[in-house]
Specification:
four-stranded antiparallel β-sheet, 6 helices, 15 strands
C-alpha cells in the first residue's frame, strides 16, 4: 500500500479532450523516451524489447506505443456503492493480536526518522527474522486472494477472505484504518492504478485486477502486490491448480502466467481474445519491470538505478510508469525512508546493506498520469488505460539482495 501524494485535482480530463491531445503526446513522449533509453546501459531495455517482440509474435498482435485498448467488453471503473467498513477491534482486543498505532484512531503519526534511513536489519537478527515472517505471511495471503479472483466474486468478498486469513494467522491487516482506509486490502481493477477500495464490483472474465496485501505481525509490516487476468485459464482447469505457490521473480513459462497457470486458449470472439491477450501483455511487462528494478538493486549503487531500469522496461513495451506513487522503506513503520521512484530520476541515495524497502512499479497502458476519486483513495488513469502492479520487499545484504516476499524463500 502506498502513501506518496497524487497531484491530481480529483477530477480527470474528459475523454474528448484527452483524445484530442493523445497523438501529440505519443509523438513527444515516445520520441523523448527513446532518446534516453540506452543511457542507463544496464541492458534492461534490450531484454524487455526482445521479450515484448516475442510475445507479440506468438500472439499475432501489434501494439502501438501508449496504446489504450478499447473494447465493448470493458467499462471504466466508476465509484461503486461501498459496503460497511470491517471493524477488527474497538476499544477491546479480544484476540490479543498486536496492532499498529493507527489501528483504533486512524491517525498516522509522522515518521520517527523522516530523513534517516534505517540500516537496523544489517545487525539485528531478531528484527530481520520478524520481517521475514511478516513478509512470508503477506505473500501467502497474496497468493490465496489471487487464486480466488474468479468471475462472479466481488472485490468485497475477497476483502473478507483476506481479512479472515490474516487475522486467523495472528496478524493485523495493515491497510485497515491506515489514515482511515476502510478495508483490509487494496483491490484495483482495470483503469484503477492503486488504492482501490473493495466494494460490490463483480469480477468478470478478462478483468485486470491487482491486490495489494499487507500485514502487521510481530511488530513489523510485510507488504506485496500482484496482478492477475481474471479467468485467463482453460475452462476444464481444476481450481486447485490456481493455488500452486508461485514465484513472479522468474521468467514466464511459455503458455503460462506468472503462477504457472495455463493460459486460456478458447474464446467466444476475436474481441474477447484480444481483451485477454492485451491484459496478459500488460501483466508481463509489469512483472519484468519489477524484476529489472530488483536486478539493478545492488550495494553501492543508487536508488535512481532502480527507477531507470523500470522505466526502460515500460519504454520497451510501449507503456508508461506511474510517477506519483513510490516504493518505501518498511519495518516497524508501514512507510518510511527511503522512497523509491519507479521512473528515471536523479536520486543519488546510495543503496546500503541493511536497507529494507519495497519496489512496486505501476505500469499503465497509455499515459501514467492519474487522478484521485472523491473517496480520497482510489487512483485511476486519466485516459482510461488499464494498469498492472507487482511488489516485493527487498533486504539489501553485503553481497546483494534478499527478496523477503518471494514465495518459498522467507523463513
Amino acid at each position: 500500500m502506498l502513501v506518496a501524494p497524487c497531484f491530481g485535482s480529483g477530477r480527470g480530463p474528459s475523454m474528448k479532450v484527452w483524445r484530442a491531445t493523445q497523438t501529440l503526446r505519443r509523438s513527444l513522449l515516445v520520441g523523448g523516451r527513446q532518446e534516453q533509453t540506452f543511457a542507463t546501459g544496464n541492458g534492461a531495455f534490450e531484454r524487455a524489447r526482445a521479450r515484448a517482440e516475442a510475445f507479440d509474435t506468438e500472439h499475432g498482435i501489434t501494439m502501438k506505443p501508449q496504446d489504450v485498448f478499447e473494447s465493448p467488453l470493458r467499462e471504466l471503473q466508476q465509484p461503486y456503492e461501498r459496503s460497511a467498513t470491517v471493524k477488527l477491534f474497538g476499544s477491546h482486543n479480544p484476540t490479543h493480536i498486536p496492532v499498529p498505532p493507527y489501528a483504533t484512531s486512524g491517525r498516522v503519526m509522522p515518521s520517527q526518522s523522516p530523513n534517516n534511513i534505517s540500516l537496523r536489519a544489517k545487525d539485528d537478527e531478531p528484527f530481520l527474522r520478524k520481517m521475514r515472517e511478516a513478509s512470508r505471511l503477506a505473500r501467502q495471503v497474496l497468493e490465496y486472494v489471487c487464486a480466488h479472483a474468479v468471475p462472479g466474486r466481488t472485490t468485497d468478498q475477497l476483502n473478507e477472505a483476506v481479512h479472515d486469513a490474516i487475522v486467523s494467522s495472528g496478524a493485523y491487516p495493515s491497510p485497515l484504518n491506515y489514515a482511515g482506509f476502510p478495508k483490509s486490502v487494496c483491490s484495483s481493477v482495470n483503469n484503477v492504478i492503486c488504492h482501490g477500495i473493495p466494494d460490490g464490483y463483480v469480477l468478470r472474465s478478462g478483468d485486470v485486477v491487482s491486490f495489494d496485501v499487507s500485514c502487521f505481525m510481530g511488530g513489523v509490516h510485510g507488504d506485496n502486490c500482484a496482478t492477475v487476468v481474471v479467468a485467463d485459464w482453460p475452462k476444464d482447469l481444476p481450481e486447485s491448480f490456481t493455488h500452486v505457490p508461485s514465484d513472479f521473480s522468474k521468467a514466464f513459462a511459455p503458455g503460462h502466467d506468472w503462477r504457472g497457470v495455463l493460459y486460456k486458449t478458447e474464446f467466444s470472439s476475436a474481441e474477447e481474445e484480444k481483451w485477454h491477450v492485451t491484459g496478459r501483455r500488460l501483466v508481463q511487462a509489469s512483472i519484468e519491470s519489477l524484476n529489472e528494478g530488483i536486478l539493478a538493486c545492488k550495494p553501492g549503487g543508487t536508488i535512481s538505478d532502480i527507477g531507470a531500469a523500470i522505466h526502460d522496461v515500460a519504454d520497451a513495451y510501449g507503456y508508461d510508469s506511474v510517477q506519483q506513487y513510490r516504493g518505501h522503506g518498511i519495518g516497524e513503520e508501514f512507510h518510511c525512508s527511503p522512497f523509491i521512484k519507479h521512473y528515471r530520476n536523479n536520486d543519488t541515495t546510495e543503496i546500503q546493506p541493511g536497507m529494507i524497502f519495497t519496489i512496486e512499479p505501476m505500469i499503465t497502458e497509455g499515459s501514467g498520469e492519474c487522478y484521485e476519486w472523491d473517496d480520497q483513495w482510489t487512483v485511476v488513469s486519466n485516459d482510461g488505460g488499464r494498469s498492472s502492479q507487482f511488489e516485493h520487499v527487498i533486504f539489501v545484504t553485503e553481497t546483494g539482495i534478499e527478496i523477503l516476499t518471494q514465495s518459498g524463500t522467507a523463513r
